[in-house]
Amino acid sequence: MNKLEYFNQRLEGLIAALSPKARKALAATIAKKLRTSQQQRIKRQQAPDGTPYVPRKPQPLRKKKGRVKREMFCKLRTNRYLKTKGSSDSAVVEFTDRVQRMARVHHYGLRDKVSAHNKIIKYENRALIAIYKIDYELIKKIIYLYIKL
Q1: Residue 45 near residue 52, CB atoms below 8 Å
Q2: What percent of the chain has pLDDT over 70?
Q3: Rg (CA), the chain
Q4: Looking at residues 121-145, what average pLDDT do you find?
Q5: What NCBIfam families does its record include (predicted)?
Q6: 114-129 mean pLDDT
């Protein structure tokens, strides 16, 4: 048996031994910490693997003076739109219903209209929420602190 498998089995046993109320509190803590890490990563304009987002396309038709002063997804990453839930079985970080469609279009690089009167355009793939190696380490650290091994 691999040492990591033994560790995971033991950790699952310790978590299962917690009461449902304690598991819910642990899940809520994990969800909040994950939301914070996702918000910081979106602020840095990085995909979960650390690669930078594809920059915006230039807007030659607008002839707007100056530059776009807001970074991408600055409102989307706020607590108002990025919600957390913790239950005894799961920890969830998700976008609210109002912005889920827009987040899905950007996350998967789908086609969409900017407004009702515009033509359909293809968006670049910019992963917004995902769990990567760093997040697994964060989850392990939270569990260690909670159980106090």
Answers
A1: yes
A2: 89
A3: 19
A4: 88
A5: tail_comp_S (TIGR01635)
A6: 89
DSSP per position, 45-92: TB-TTSPBPPPPPP-TTT--SS---SPTTTTTTSTTTEEEEE-SS-EE
In this structure, the number of other CB atoms found within 10 A of the CB of residue 41 comes to 21
pLDDT tens, residue by residue, 61-74: 666 666 666 788 98
- Sort 115 into a burial class: Cβ within 10 Å, 0-12 / 13-18 / 19+: exposed
In sequence order, what are the residues at sequence separation of 6 or more whose Cβ sits closer than 8 angstroms to the Cβ of residue 25? 86
Residue with the two structure tokens 């990591």: 4
Q: Quickly tell me which residue has 């109320």 as its tokens.
A: 21
Inter-residue contact 54 to 124 (CB < 8 Å): yes
Token pair 């469609």 is at which residue? 101
123 three-state secondary structure? coil
Does this model's pTM top 0.85?
no
Task: Tell me the backbone φ, ψ of residue 129, rounded to 5 degrees.
Answer: -125, 125
